[in-house]
């Protein structure tokens, strides 16, 4: 019995990667690679992930879709090492380095980034100081001065549509849902991770904000970054057009395909997968 | 653009330098093997008090004052309404210890060993950098005092109180124990009987000093008591910022610190008193601090209470003239095994007076932070206003925080408000910061420092850096947080 079904559309040959225009003369020595191997995890004693296998390489965009309660957000939290989630088996490997038992900060410094579904407010911690401290941990090689860093940060803030005044505000404190999501994207752009996991980045965003966020993701996209986009709905995938789509159901990936799979889910929901599986 | 972040940049640099220098908390808790020139030995009685007065060659009124205060001290019971004070060993405390014969205004003349101590604590550099003047006290006596000439020429007086009593006896007599009489409480009475050292700062009419003046207190001897008495007088229309820093080595046996601070803010004057207390965890810290604020005067208390075993401290403002105002900003860090019973008192005795009290506390492990406050508005203090805000941050499950506000309002037109919040460092918040590369320690101290931000802004940068470091040191010792 096949564990995973492959779903490809008849248009598979038309690979629509219009923004994949990385600079060819720059020779990429080593592409990042995240390997999730047979990952099982539980939260509060309840088994949520039951053996997830997934590989994300630099230059690839993967979408992970699935019905509510399938374990999508759990995967995100497990990947970043949230202490409330317990790994029962399997491994998370980034560029040959085993991150399975590592702390969140070690994973971040290794180049893994999670944009949280509902980023928490941290009252009193100033956004600018937080970004500076984080950046220094992730990129200790960069000795640029604080003022240079802030100037760079302001440029990024403008792009994601966050006013400069946010720099002196507390992290996520009093931010609207959309502002929180923009801030997640801002962090991604500043910290320059190798593997980006976006957990429901589209929730809480209106149509315009969604477009803007999608543009930023595309801008950040390159041969040196791999994306895993966790989403319930297809709408963000219209803009980003992932190369690979995976369906997570009941803690396992039950189907792989290309973006046409997400279109079918948009039209028909998830029920038919149950029937096939 | 260059100036926008210059302060933050300097702060970052200072913190990085500190990280490199790898200073640990123990570095403050070193102990000098210095034999005191004179000590009264352990215990307290009439003879010892007379002996202290005689060594100091004091005027007769002071000798009589001391003896009177001793009687009051002996007649008052140890207060039982607050933390347990049974650990104070009254019998075996040395009430007076003199390190050396001299007090000088020439740094080179300070005995080498004492000089080294203050050097290690960074006192001379601070003076050069940003102070208008400083006094250094070692055990019971002031050993060094200096004031920039520009202020001396304007008639500012800044020296230890013993010296002031000799050179300006009438001026001292005018203010000595007016705001804090020995009858106030047992510890004030004790100070009245055995006081030694402390600063006397007088700012004449209309003189506005734009740089802070500082006193640094160092307690070295085991089971020694430090009983300094500080008087700050801001005469009409003047302005002054006075800072105190305190440290002591760590001993098995407890030491006692019982100071008096009296501040007189005259008409239209402005005084700010900042203290950063980092006593070691064998010290009972029981000072009495009080300000008399006259018409249109402004008093600001800024306090960082980081060390000690038990601290009981409630800086009080007596708003005696119309439009007088007081502002208290206090941070208490109750580390493992320590109790901080701190707060503020505001007494509105005249019309249109206002007070604002902000108290922040952090409890770590089994540390206990208590806010105890008194607000009194007399009949006739029309349209007076007060606002009290208490914020507590609990780091561990067993950390504790209490709030005991006490309000006595006799004036119907007065308005007052209370706000209190309690927060805990949660796993989600820590994980969020950590997922961006911050270590657990860094994340939790960032949350703590963020919680203290409005206080940090109010203190000089050197002190902010110091507090920043001390808090990080406390957090580092914790291991698992949250």
What would your notes on this structure say?
- The complex is a heterodimer of chains A (277) and B (482).
- Chain A is of the alpha/beta class.
- Chain A has helices spanning 72-80, 104-110, 127-138, 146-160, 177-191, 207-220, 235-240, 259-268, 271-276; strands at residues 5-7, 33-43, 46-57, 61-65, 85-94, 97-98, 112-115, 122-126, 170-171, 195-199, 226-231, 244-249, 252-257.
- Chain A has a domain at 34-119 and 192-276: P-loop containing nucleotide triphosphate hydrolases (Rossmann fold, 3-Layer(aba) Sandwich).
- Chain A has 9 helices and 13 strands.
- In chain A, the strands form 3 sheets. A 7-stranded mixed beta sheet of chain A has the order 1-13-12-4-11-10-7, sandwiched between helices.
- In chain A, a hairpin with a 2-residue loop joins strand 12 (244-249) and strand 13.
- In chain A, helix 5 packs parallel to helix 6.
- The N and C termini of chain A lie close together (10 Å).
- Residues 9-26 of chain A have low confidence and may be disordered.
- By secondary structure, chain B is α/β, with parallel strands linked by helices.
- Chain B has one domain.
- The model of chain B is unreliable at 478-482 (pLDDT under 50).
- Chain A binds chain B through residues 80-84, 103-105, 107-109, 113-114, 116, 119-126, 129-130, 132-135, 137-138, 145-147, 150-151, 170-171, 187, 191, and chain B through 1-2, 4-6, 8-9, 12, 423, 426-429, 431-440, 442, 446-447, 449-453.
């Amino acid at each position: 019995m096949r564990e995973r079904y492959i779903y490809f559309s008849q248009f598979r040959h038309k690979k629509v990667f219009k923004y994949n225009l990385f600079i060819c003369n720059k020779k990429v020595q080593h592409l990042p690679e995240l390997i999730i191997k047979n990952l099982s995890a539980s939260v509060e004693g309840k088994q949520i992930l039951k053996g997830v296998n997934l590989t994300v390489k630099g230059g690839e965009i993967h979408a992970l879709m699935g019905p509510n309660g399938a374990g999508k957000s759990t995967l995100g939290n497990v990947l970043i090492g949230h202490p409330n989630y317990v790994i029962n088996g399997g491994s998370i490997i980034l560029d040959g380095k085993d991150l399975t038992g590592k702390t969140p900060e070690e994973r971040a410094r290794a180049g893994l980034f999670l944009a949280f579904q509902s980023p928490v407010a941290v009252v009193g911690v100033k956004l600018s100081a937080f970004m500076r401290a984080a950046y220094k941990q992730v990129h200790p090689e960069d000795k640029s001065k604080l003022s240079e860093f802030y100037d760079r940060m302001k440029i990024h803030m403008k792009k994601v549509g966050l006013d400069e005044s946010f720099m002196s505000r507390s992290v996520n404190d009093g931010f609207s849902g959309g502002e929180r999501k923009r801030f997640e994207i801002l962090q991604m752009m500043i910290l320059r991770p190798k593997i980006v996991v976006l957990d429901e980045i589209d929730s809480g965003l209106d149509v315009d904000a969604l477009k803007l966020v999608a543009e930023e993701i595309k801008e950040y996209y390159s041969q040196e970054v791999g994306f895993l986009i966790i989403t319930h709905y297809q709408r963000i995938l219209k803009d980003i057009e992932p190369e690979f789509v995976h369906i997570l159901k009941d803690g396992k990936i039950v189907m792989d395909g290309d973006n046409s799979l997400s279109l079918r889910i948009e039209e028909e929901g998830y029920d038919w997968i149950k029937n096939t599986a | 653009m260059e100036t926008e972040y210059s302060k933050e940049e300097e702060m970052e640099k200072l913190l990085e330098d500190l990280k490199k220098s790898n200073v640990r908390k123990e570095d403050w808790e070193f102990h000098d093997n210095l034999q005191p020139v004179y000590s009264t030995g352990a215990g307290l009685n009439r003879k010892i008090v007379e002996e202290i007065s005689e060594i100091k060659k004091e005027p007769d009124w002071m000798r009589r004052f001391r003896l009177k205060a001793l009687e009051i001290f002996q007649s008052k019971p140890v207060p039982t309404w607050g933390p347990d004070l049974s650990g104070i060993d009254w019998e075996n405390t040395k009430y007076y210890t003199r390190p050396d014969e001299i007090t000088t205004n020439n740094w080179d003349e300070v005995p080498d060993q004492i000089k080294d101590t203050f050097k290690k604590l960074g006192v001379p550099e601070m003076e050069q950098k940003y102070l208008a003047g400083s006094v250094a006290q070692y055990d019971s006596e002031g050993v060094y005092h200096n004031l920039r000439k520009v202020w001396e020429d304007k008639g500012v007086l800044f020296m230890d109180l013993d010296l002031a009593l000799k050179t300006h006896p009438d001026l001292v007599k005018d203010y000595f124990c007016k705001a804090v009489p020995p009858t106030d409480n047992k510890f004030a009475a004790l100070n009245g009987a055995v006081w030694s050292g402390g600063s006397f700062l007088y700012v004449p009419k209309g003189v506005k000093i734009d740089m802070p003046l500082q006193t640094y207190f160092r307690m070295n001897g085991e089971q020694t008591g430090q009983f300094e008495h500080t008087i700050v007088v801001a005469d009409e229309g003047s302005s002054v910022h006075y800072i105190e820093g305190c440290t002591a080595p760590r001993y098995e046996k407890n030491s006692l610190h019982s100071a008096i601070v009296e501040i007189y803010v005259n008409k239209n004057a402005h005084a700010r008193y900042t203290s950063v207390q980092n006593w070691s965890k064998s010290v009972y810290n029981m000072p009495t601090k009080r300000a008399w604020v006259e018409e249109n005067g402004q008093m600001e208390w800024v306090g960082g209470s980081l060390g000690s075993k038990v601290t009981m401290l409630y800086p009080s403002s007596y708003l005696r003239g119309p439009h007088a105002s007081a502002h208290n900003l206090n941070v208490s860090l109750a580390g493992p095994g320590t109790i901080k019973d701190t707060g503020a008192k505001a007494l509105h005795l005249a019309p249109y007076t206002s007070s604002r009290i902000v108290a922040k506390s952090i409890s770590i492990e089994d540390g206990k932070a208590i806010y105890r406050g008194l607000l009194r508005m007399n009949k006739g203090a029309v349209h007076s206003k007060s606002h009290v805000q208490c914020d507590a941050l609990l780091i561990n499950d067993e950390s504790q925080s209490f709030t005991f506000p006490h309000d006595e309002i006799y004036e119907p037109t007065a308005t007052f408000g209370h706000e209190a919040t309690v927060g805990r460092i949660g796993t989600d918040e820590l994980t969020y910061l950590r997922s961006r590369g911050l270590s657990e320690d860094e994340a939790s101290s960032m949350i703590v420092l963020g919680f203290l931000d409005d206080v940090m802004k109010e203190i000089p940068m050197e002190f902010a850096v110091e507090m920043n470091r001390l808090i990080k040191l406390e957090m580092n010792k914790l291991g698992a947080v949250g």
